[in-house]
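Why this split exists: single-chain examples teach little about how molecules sit against one another. For that reason, every record in the complexes split bundles all components of an assembly together and asks for one structure covering all of them. Below is a record exactly as it appears in the raw files.
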Amino acid sequence: MEAKLADLKNRLQEIYDLTAAAGLLYWDQSTYMPRGGAPARARQLAALERLTHEKFTDPALGRLLDDLRPHEESLPYEHDDAALIRVTRRHYERETRVPVEFAARMSSHAAESYHAWTEARPANDFKRVQPYLEKTLDLSRELAEFFPDKDHLADPLIAYSDYGMQAETVRAIFADLRERLVPLVQAISAQPPADDSCLRKTYPEDRQLAFGLEVIKRFGYDFERGRQDKTHHPFAIKFSIGDVRITTRVKEDFLGEALFSTMHESGHAMYEQGLAPGYEGTLLARGTSSGVHESQSRLWENLVGRSRGFWEFFYPQLQMVFPDQLKDVSLDTFYRAINKVERSLIRTDADEVTYNLHVMLRFDFELAMLEGRLAIADLPEAWHERFKADFGITAPDDRDGVLQDVHWFSGRIGGVFQGYTLGNILSAQFYEAALAAQPSIPDEIRRGEFGTLHGWLKEAIYQHGRKFTAAELTERVTGGPLSVEPYIRYLKTKYGELYDLSGAEA
Amino acid sequence: MEAKLADLKNRLQEIYDLTAAAGLLYWDQSTYMPRGGAPARARQLAALERLTHEKFTDPALGRLLDDLRPHEESLPYEHDDAALIRVTRRHYERETRVPVEFAARMSSHAAESYHAWTEARPANDFKRVQPYLEKTLDLSRELAEFFPDKDHLADPLIAYSDYGMQAETVRAIFADLRERLVPLVQAISAQPPADDSCLRKTYPEDRQLAFGLEVIKRFGYDFERGRQDKTHHPFAIKFSIGDVRITTRVKEDFLGEALFSTMHESGHAMYEQGLAPGYEGTLLARGTSSGVHESQSRLWENLVGRSRGFWEFFYPQLQMVFPDQLKDVSLDTFYRAINKVERSLIRTDADEVTYNLHVMLRFDFELAMLEGRLAIADLPEAWHERFKADFGITAPDDRDGVLQDVHWFSGRIGGVFQGYTLGNILSAQFYEAALAAQPSIPDEIRRGEFGTLHGWLKEAIYQHGRKFTAAELTERVTGGPLSVEPYIRYLKTKYGELYDLSGAEA
């Protein structure tokens, strides 16, 4: 049994290392690669993807997992070996359901579709991508059909990133959240908007970057095991537990960009840096779901990084870094600026109150498309209508409407958006649990100290990787299932201090 | 036959792409990787190496090459397909001679030995690495023994980087060169040394880098297909013909470091950028030998970059970039400074006249060790003796003696140094051919124009990749075999203007 377990770990380690190599190719493509490297880079990534898929679907791996079942069953559920075998089997079963030929077809279509989108969006030309999107929808349905046990076509697609969640569950959670959010948004929108002009001066790039790095160093992001580089669309990426990098982008005319993106990505990265070292080289060495991952980025970005206590410590320092821009701006004004709520067109620029409405629109549309209730041809119009209904504003074109997000144009339709809102919900639920366990956290934050919070998160969440599903982890950490209550409480408390929310009580 | 050729190309492309992926891992390790990434990086590189070796020694590839022999024989020697099959067979035969198990053992010993060296050199502790080096010598001999047809144990080792060269040939060339060089070095050393204090002021890094980039842009290094980053030990590396990068290092207290390293690496890189695009993805897409590669880096660094004509154009610009440091320094003084000849301890810092004496020492010692005439235990002492005899000076310790170069400590003993001097020799021989074909080149250089020279090199050398061996290429380009005459002529002409060489006529 020892030998078989060692065999399993060796196989997984090779896959892990090849996946990390592909990750580095992607990181380089997004940061430093010269334009001329693009054609070969696509080939190199495809070659690695082919190899890892081959190795992951090797029938010998399936036999090994069968042989290891008695060992797994002899161990407690929480034993690392049991978790390793269980999680590997789950992945093996998923990977082997999808024929190689189909996966290759889908991935090559995604590349073509993405390329078309990069041309269609600036040209505001939905027609250009419509046929690609129609094929993506067909392929997404086909992909879902490879999985027999499902209540909804979206279920297996959701399971790719949020294992354990179903379309119906998410739909119910989102309906609940939506009912409480809409009155909040309406109450806030009826009041004069916050003035964020203090963020929209000229902020030299180097000082923005240096300040952001100083902040996340204090958070506990380990620069011996990571670094930050510039890119177009910020992301965090792990090559090993000893090398988890983040990327950011800087706008010299908007202070709110790089700083919060850096905090956000550091949250993702600290999760991966905090994995149990013994999980290295296995499938356990990764955040457990897209929702839980996003909860960690949002926790550091919003619950910590946009809190008043945080800025009581950091604002005087920021004023020293940017004296010309901020010396006459009060902490109150700055705090209101970074928490400005505004109904706006672009998801990625949205504040924490309205953000989830963007996500729900997309999630609902995914279900509607998969169910055949919404044709691709009707998508742009449906987008504008729903947007008008939810936000009271209309995008002037499709560029800032249905064409704004890359997700549907570079992968599949179904299961690609829910994690963002699940993450927002969980961020508040986990943070409430942290504060209950460690009531000193807010005071420490006011002193620029984050060790207790970081330590608690590492202990409660980070170290476990994929050992527990998102639902199991939520239960362990908070004592109950996912709930929107903490999130609503958080928003009402915070924004109740900034706005008059008396009309928002449902 | 078409299908078999396509099969061959597909196999080679996968190997090429995986090799490029490993290249990127190495590049990252040498430029941006945080310290914590090291253990996993070693594993990732080993995984890719294992895979490419597996694919390269696949017996199916051997059968394919057999099947393609009639096709190859039906084509002219110079036909691209014939070259592709010929060169692939040469590599296949070499790769399959060495058992996988042995290659893995050698590579893992190299990693351990390298690690020991990184500790031994700063501690000046040869004893620490002696057992590693003894094992390296044993393994190097074992490696050579896998190849049956050889006149000298060093021959197959030399063939790894300088295919077609033999120990005896190199020995004869070096003896010839040495005989002419020693009087030159002696004559120069008897005169007062040049004053290079103008290079040893404070030169801010950013301006050094910007100036170097401006120079190589004019050379014709294509930044759409490359970039420069900082590292400890500069190198050039290709991920595809569309992505050939260089690295450099900067010393703020010595202007001679980054600038000439940048020119040097750009020479390597322009060779790879200039390969025939149709060779992409095959074994033909690479410089043909270490000697020819070095000839291209040296040509741009020394024959162009340290020439008077070059600086007639660039020196006024350099003075504008560094006015405080250079406004009172004449072109003559600067030109003498960058061409200072000095008997010094470190190969990589040596000038173009004494450099080859460093290489010959190492080459001779490689042969002596392989032949069993020189024991590892006696190496430090032998080094100091020979150094005293050749240079008239003695290193104060082994750190700047036998421990200075990484080569023997990170790979093998045999065949790892000759390329540097073969490159110096060929750089002058190729440059003479270029000037004969395009007499306008020197005037163009004086105007900061390099198009004719770059175009000629691309046409005569770069585009051919590995289609021709170094010897074939030399014959085609210069009309004769490798010869030291042009190199000696070049040195005598150039240094005859800077020093009195009347006593050096042999």
